[in-house]
Amino acid sequence: MKKLFYLMMLVFMLAQIQQARAQINTGRTDTFYSKTLGENRRLLIYLPSGYGDTYFYPRRYPVLYLLDGDSHLNSVSSMIQLLSERSGPMGFPELIIVAIPNTDRMRDLTPTHITNDPNHMIDSASLSHTGGGEKFLSFISNELMPHIDSAYRTAPYKIFMGHSLGGLTVINAFLHHTSLFNAYIATDPSMSWDDSKLLQQAKVILKEKKFDGRALYLGIADNLAPGTDTISIMSHRTDLFSQHMGSIFELRNSILTAWPHSEPPPFVPFTGQTPIAEKVPPAGLPPFRFAWKYYPDCDHQSLPIPAEYDGLRFVFNYYSLNFPFREFFSPGWTQDSLIAAHYRTISWYMGYKVAPPEFVINNTGYQLMGGHQLDRAAYYFHLNMDNYPNSFNVYDSMGDLLVARAEKDSAMKCYQKALQLRDNPDTRKKLKELSR
What we know:
This protein is of the alpha/beta class. It has 2 domains: 291 residues, Alpha/Beta hydrolase fold, catalytic domain (Rossmann fold, 3-Layer(aba) Sandwich); 80 residues, Serine Threonine Protein Phosphatase 5, Tetratricopeptide repeat (Alpha Horseshoe). Helix content is 48%, strand content 13%. The protein has an 8-stranded mixed sheet, with helices on both faces. Helix 6 packs parallel to helix 7 and helix 7 packs parallel to helix 8. The two termini are 40 Å apart. The N terminus is likely disordered.
């Protein structure tokens, strides 16, 4: 029997993986007209696998805005699915991804206009279009975000991710439009653009501006020319690669100088799980969090996958709970408030109330009922009622618990409340049986 059970579980997991892969590869396309840019913009949207669930109360999700979207969507969505579904819904948040394909990359992802490229990498036609970065960020802020918020169930937490010129755009937004996103992930940003003009601005802004409540991850590739190292490029920038790398390291140094306690270098991405001992979050916004990593085995083109993965883990390194699952269902467990306390910490970091997933708490309650721990089950069903007062399921579940407690009248009231919110046949059947 045990072998048969594991075989069935394996078949189920394989089916889930195939379904997930299909969702990643197809996604969905959204198109709307931008008055700011004067053109139609195509979007590639990735939705979490649970987005279409109709049984539990509809959830809202943080949003990742991804530059060079057509190139990076498959890899980033796979990462997020791996992190949020393989580690469990309480280990990493499920995210909506808004991948933004390019129409004119040199226009949209460069913050300043240049007329000459000293490295002769950009043709004259492309040079004439440069410098539209501020208009592009205006498009994101004033048109794209309102469109996404109206079309999808979004939560008020936003991440901005970009590579190369996309990374430059991420740093530009971080410096000049800090409140636009909650977290920023820049992989090998082109900080040498326009004689490192944004880098020079950063040195001033970082000393004068507050970045409380924000997180920044900086990934640096190995683009060293033969005979050079990460120390020599800080003083001898004689070629394209040393200029590129030197400017990124200089940005890192500027951040660490202005914010020496933001995150201890070189990089501690994710401890796996946060400690079990929970503390009450302090008043005010969380401090600015910064992490960086140099990838000596990755060049500019191979960096995105490992750096994006590390960046996501860093942004949410407070999310996962070191939970003692083996002890949890024993009758002697006395720390049922731990989950609610942990989600208060998550809410503090994310800036809005984040509740434990309804289906997780619901299943927990039923497992405790099955173990004849009715008082503990009641705690979790009440927790769901507090967090999801408009869900029919939370009252239906409480009704089941009250039936187990032989509290018929109270159970009927819960079933009636559930039916007011949704006419569920199973709930109606249970109420009918109690009414006999």
